[in-house]
Amino acid sequence: MSKVVLGFSGGVDSAVSAELLKKQGFQVYGLYLDNTDEAARRSAVTAAEQRGIDLKVLDVKAQLEERVCRPFTEAYLRGETPNPCILCNPTLKFKSLMEYADAVGAEFVATGHYARAAGGRIYKGRPANDQSYMLCRLTRQQAERALFPLGDYEKAQVRQLAEELGLPAAHKPDSMEICFIPDKDYIGWLSRRAAMPPEGDFVFHGQVVGRHEGIHRYTVGQRRPGLMDGRKVYISRIDPVSNRIELALWEELFQTEVTARDFNWLIEPPRSPICASVRVRHTKWENPPCSAAVEGDRVRIRCVEPVRAPAAGQSAVLYDGDQLLGGGFIVSE
């Protein structure tokens, strides 16, 4: 019987993933990454016991601090908008899964992400819940060993499966977006970790039109009401050097060129421009066709149709149809 190590939290996604893997003939080993509180840990342990899953609890608080929390904090202080899941997946979650898999002799690792894997490649999941964007920085070695049991399902279907299987997790709420900020107050969380940036100017077309409360409180694309006598203006750029936040009209937010640094390729890095499509934020609706070219240590992405408000620190993620090609961090130019 083939072995697989599953990231197991006890929530509906990981619980259903475990049952689907069992049906496929796998011997499932669970790995709980302990980075929250005792109640969450107990819940995961109980859920694993109920389903007969051998669960290892791994304390990852120190690694989370080093590999995710600190870079997350530093990015916000630079006026960027980081995505902690994209930081965590390759450096902590999948790294830990693969290390445990090696220890128990498992060929594969699995998570409850809504994506698909085949032949060492990663593909989009169902459109309603696709999470392939979050996997853009996996290494090629991680992708080759990854399984995503929920790739052909939508969340509503997964909950229905949980009901049919009699899983207690069927009605468990979805996990929070940022696991290490349980109260969702990221400003308070940041302020307890570092000195916060000072107030500064809002600038519209070169003219100072108001004061902001610190660049860490804002992200590109946000609307800022009350500054322009009823005119709708939006944040278009955050400059940490001058401590200024630039504003623009809606139509001025759209760009046809995006530059990404530290690009992670899940294919052989192309030697010449390639045709692809691009997503610049997990929640964005645009996924326009584009060309992408490696230029030194950057990747220059030229879109056929403009994308709205690409934000420094977010990821520009490339696809060939449904296949995930990789992603890099957007830079402000």
Quick rundown:
With 333 residues, this protein is an alpha/beta fold. β8 and β9 form a beta hairpin.
Layout of helices and strands:
Blueprint: E1 3-7, H1 12-23, E2 27-34, H2 38-50, E3 54-59, H3 61-77, H4 84-104, E4 108-110, E5 115-118, E6 121-124, H5 140-144, E7 146-147, H6 155-165, H7 186-191, E8 200-204, E9 207-212, E10 234-239, E11 244-248, E12 254-265, E13 274-279, E14 289-295, E15 298-308, E16 315-320, E17 323-331
Parallel strand pairs: 1-2, 1-4, 2-3, 4-7, 8-11
Antiparallel strand pairs: 5-6, 8-9, 10-11, 12-15, 12-17, 13-14, 13-16, 14-15, 16-17
Protein described:
- The chain is α/β, with parallel strands linked by helices and 333 residues long.
- 26% of the residues lie in helices and 32% in strands.
- The chain has seven helices and 17 strands.
- The chain has helices at residues 12-23, 38-50, 61-77, 84-104, 140-144, 155-165, 186-191; strands spanning 3-7, 27-34, 54-59, 108-110, 115-118, 121-124, 146-147, 200-204, 207-212, 234-239, 244-248, 254-265, 274-279, 289-295, 298-308, 315-320, 323-331.
- The strands form four sheets. Strands 12-15-14-13-16-17 form a six-stranded antiparallel beta barrel.
- α2 (38-50) links the parallel β2 (27-34) and β3.
